Amino acid sequence: MAYSFDFSSLLDYTPVLVDGVATTVGLTAVSTVLGVALGIGGAAARTSTVKPLAIVVGAYVELIRNTPFLVQLFFIFFGLPSLGIRLAEWQAAVLAMVINLGAYSTEIIRAGIEATPKGQIEAGASLGMTGPQIFRYVVLGPALGKIWPALTSQIVIVMLGSSVCSQIAAEELSFAANFIQSRNFRPFEAYFLATALYLALAVALRWAFSLIGRRMFAKGVARA
Amino acid sequence: MSPVNTSAAGRIATGRPLVKLSGIRKSFGPVEVLKGVDMAVEEGQVVAMIGRSGSGKSTLLRSINGLERIDGGVIEVDGECVDPGQIDLRALRQKVGMVFQQFNLFPHLSAGENVMLALKVVKKQDKAATRAAAEAALAKVGLGHKFDAYPSQLSGGQQQRVAIARSLAMAPKVLLCDEITSALDPELVAEVLGVVRRLAEEGMTLILVTHEMRFAREVCDRLVFMHGGRIAEQGPPAELFDRPATPELAQFIGMVEAR
């Protein structure tokens, strides 16, 4: 093999890599919080008895789930300025990720809500609780608990999908890898390291979510 | 008959109608389940509704706190009137407690939290008062020591007693019990019926749908036999059991006693 590996050449770019990882983590954190919040609202709307609301949210979910993320991102970053809405790279990236995760998590959380036994909602109603109170105190917690692993996977997908945001020059981890290999001409090393970092981030994310899930939702769950 | 009735169990009903149902109608699609039911329950009375499945007894019970939307008639509980047009049923539900066949405890909350939730968010009581009320309610059903236990850690009978405590803590005027022992193992039925019996003795107004005929006979002031969406017969349990006036009731008694 003619190619000789040289990972030491990456050392010069440590600050770029650190910035890239930090941006990926930041993008993921912000869009997870906002996206899951949007998903909770969307799931509440989709399961509500207010039909027009359920239909509008349904249309949003189908639109996002049936179009590529890259096109959604380009539409926000390159398309919206035609309407006078100009966003910075990171703003467009966050917005696209929030809208994307919001749609997928709406569907995931909706499944959890629909798995709530009807009797529990009736019990809440018979205690004089309002619909929103029942949703917040009776339905939501167990629903999130049930779908937590699926939601975790979706958030990992969104984190990995944030690599697409390098296409609008959001300076996240993939952008950093592209940048480095265009300077030192060592694509193998640059992408190998990026791969390893994504893997580590994904494993850490799953671990953190599993921990959060156990802290928040394990209460009252029957242990065999 | 004097306006004050003394029941077989020695309790005293006041003669004031607490629950008044007039002309209650309800259909599920093309099937009319309640065909204009009139019924009155006095304060302190214990009334059992019996009948075959499909006779409308559960639907009638569930309509008293608005879990089933009625299509016609008026429900009146302690001066709170509800007709089919009523959207907000919370005022009614604060006066009417309900216990279900499947307990319906909130699985993510401990026994104490189950009892405290509605006190906190509906009655808006402060933390100390909520806690004290929940402890008192659980003690009343003999589960004061299970405050921190989760439903999954309790037996069916214990879960049902927590559900009773959860309803009682809201201080309802009347407690509805919808086949509350039907999902229990036979050996757990007695502990739940014991709690209900004690409530009856303390003067709680109770309306039960039940298949426990012996219990109904011993504890209730009045039996209501439903058949085909109407009240076919009602009266003191001994009278109904010993001298059923309709062939439907005679047949029903024959069926349950043959078990």
Layout of helices and strands:
The complex is a heterodimer of chains A (224) and B (259).
Chain A: H1 14-46, H2 51-65, H3 69-79, H4 89-114, H5 118-126, H6 131-161, H7 173-184, H8 187-217
Helix pairs in contact in A: 1-2, 1-4, 1-6, 1-7, 2-4, 3-4, 4-6, 5-6, 6-8, 7-8
Chain B: E1 5-6, E2 12-13, E3 17-28, E4 31-42, E5 46-50, H1 57-64, E6 72-77, E7 80-82, H2 90-95, E8 96-99, H3 111-121, H4 127-140, H5 156-169, E9 174-178, H6 186-201, E10 205-209, H7 213-219, E11 222-227, E12 230-235, H8 237-242, H9 247-258
Parallel strand pairs in B: 5-10, 5-11, 8-9, 9-10
Antiparallel strand pairs in B: 1-2, 3-4, 3-6, 6-7, 11-12
Helix pairs in contact in B: 3-4, 3-5, 4-5, 5-6
How large is the count of helical segments of chain A?
8
**Numbering strands along the chain, what is their spatial order in the largest sheet of chain B?**
8-9-10-5-11-12
**CATH homologous superfamily of chain A, by name?**
MetI-like
Number of domains of chain B: 1
| Percent in helix of chain B | 25-40%
Biggest interface found: A-B, 23 and 30 residues
Query: What overall form of chain B do the CA principal axes indicate?
Result: globular
Which architecture name of chain A does CATH use?
A: Orthogonal Bundle
Shape of chain A: elongated
- Secondary-structure element order of chain A, N to C: HHHHHHHH
How far do the termini of chain B sit from each other? 36 Å
The proportion of strand residues of chain A reads under 5%
CATH superfamily of chain B: P-loop containing nucleotide triphosphate hydrolases
Major beta-sheet overview of chain B: 6 strands, mixed
The helix-strand sequence of chain B is: EEEEEHEEHEHHHEHEHEEHH
User: Which fold does the CATH topology of chain B refer to?
Assistant: Rossmann fold
Number of DSSP-assigned strands of chain B: 12
Descriptive overview:
The complex is a heterodimer of chains A (224) and B (259). Chain A has helices at 14-46, 51-65, 69-79, 89-114, 118-126, 131-161, 173-184, 187-217. Chain A is an all-alpha fold and 224 residues long. Chain A has one domain (9-217): MetI-like (MetI-like fold), CATH 1.10.3720.10. Residues 1-5 of chain B have low confidence and may be disordered. Chain B is α/β, with parallel strands linked by helices. Chain B has helices at 57-64, 90-95, 111-121, 127-140, 156-169, 186-201, 213-219, 237-242, 247-258, and strands at 5-6, 12-13, 17-28, 31-42, 46-50, 72-77, 80-82, 96-99, 174-178, 205-209, 222-227, 230-235. Chain A binds chain B through residues 117, 119-120, 122-130, 133, 137-138, 141-142, 145, 217, 219-222, and chain B through 65-67, 89-90, 93-94, 96-98, 100, 102, 104-110, 117-118, 121-122, 150-152, 163, 166-167, 170.
